[in-house]
Amino acid sequence: MFMNRLFGKPKPEANTLQTLDKLNETLEMLEKKEGVLLKKAAGEVEKAKEFSRVKNKRAAIQCLKRKRLYEQQVEQLGNFQLRIHDQMIMLEGAKATTETVDALRTGASAMKAMQKATNIDDVDKTMDEINEQTENMKQIQDALSAPFGSAADFDEDELEAELQELEETELEEALLQPVPIHVPQGKQPTRPAAQKKPTAEEDELAALQAEMAL
């Protein structure tokens, strides 16, 4: 109790690891003993063969009895190893379960802390503030984009009528423009020959012919 108060209680995880280590050490020890007993049993079989060759039946039977005892101990050690394996599997499964539960508990605590930090009322208040700021900014932008001064007094209907009049005038001017005549390259349009002014002699001749006709 004093050690627990001084250093605190050991963590379950540490105890589990220590127990698994202890079980592993015991398992290795049992396996070594099993190996030794198997060698002894094999040795008794060889001794029994030798005694049988020299017709020492009693000694041979004693060797076989010791072999049976060694085999019984080997079987008992096998049962011990099976129990230890079973215990190790159970401990490892319990350790995995404990770690899983601890992880889930930690996640639940973290989620609870986050929910506590972000209260639903605070979220609603924040969203209201954002909407209010957005509406204020929209009003400011509308106010800045609205016409002011002399431009605010212009009538939109009059401006549209003036624009339509300009478009109609431009269309009429385009219709009155002469259509260009395409002249093939290398040819020039022929001009009518200028009439030659009659000379004085030609005038006198024409007058004479008129008198003769009378």
UniProtKB/TrEMBL annotation:
Keywords: Coiled coil, Endosome. It holds the Pfam family Snf7. Residues 179-203 are annotated as: Disordered. It comes from Camelina sativa. Its main location: other. Residues 13-40, 123-176 form a coiled coil. This is Vacuolar protein sorting-associated protein 32 homolog 1-like. PANTHER family: CHARGED MULTIVESICULAR BODY PROTEIN (PTHR22761), GH13992P (PTHR22761:SF10). It is found in: Endosome. Belongs to the SNF7 family. It comes from the Eukaryota.
